[in-house]
Hints:
Layout: E1 14-17, H1 20-28, E2 36-43, E3 50-53, E4 60-67, E5 69-74, E6 80-83, E7 86-90, E8 96-100, E9 107-114, H2 116-125, E10 132-133, H3 136-155, H4 160-181, H5 185-203, H6 211-218, H7 222-233, H8 237-255, H9 260-266, H10 272-283, H11 287-292
Antiparallel strand pairs: 1-2, 2-9, 3-8, 4-7, 4-9, 5-6, 5-8, 7-10
Helix pairs in contact: 2-4, 3-4, 5-6, 8-10
Amino acid sequence: MDSLRKPDGFEFQRLFVQPDYMAKELSESELTRDLFVSDIGCFPRALHHYRERSEGCDSHIFIYCAEGEGWVELNGAKAKTVAAQQLAVIPAGLPHRYGASAADPWTIYWFHVKGAHAAKLIALYGLDAGPFRLSMRSHAQWLDEFEHIYRLLDDKPYSLPAQVHAAETARRLISGIGLNAGKTAQDKKRESYLEQAIRYMTDHLADSFRLSDLARHTGLSKQHLIYLFNRETGCPPVEYFLRMKMQRAGQLLDLTDWSVKEIAGAVGLSDPYYFSRLFKKMMGCSPTAYRGIPKG
């Protein structure tokens, strides 16, 4: 191996590793055993950075390249470039190598997490299929949450409350990034169509509903709309629209003294008896009973 290669020791680096006693406590605590941060660090302009673990690591590794460039090789496969604003995730137990570009060495903000929920979150969001480019919003979120976690652990490594909060922050960061990082262009296009359809529904809660009108507005076929709603919401568009109407009716019952007939008309249902039956079916009680339930 090139003698210049090194795993750490970079100028202005930050590095925290859990003390053994705390790592053991976190792995046993009911509040942290499913996910906790075991290591965290920042390596700026990490020239000659190189890591190789032929047996894999006992933790899941998240590497975010904020600037510069590097590469990651998993299980002997072809190395993948990790460019600026990209996240690479290495699951526990997977043989790997990674390092900085010689021409433009990366600046990385990274952490390791342990616990059964870490593996489940990675699988849920498909984060091990990267590297993924983060949006500017996600980029800012990563840097902010990293700083928060690092300060918590570096300042109070002995404090279980601080450790629990750091673990919860890491969980929130992973799931938040996961919602966007793993999406393909097709996923985002599908989400855009759904948002467009739901906005149309929101603007027409006081009207009757025809699937053909929604199809014309979104530019999709009726069959595609039904497929999209079933896939993303678990119900077809007509049922989803009725649920929106009943949620709006619930708001009006709470916030106004309108009669049931007036509220039915406000959500586009001219028959108050049909409205009451539908409301009870979807909300679990009649409009009058709902209005009588204490709120807040």
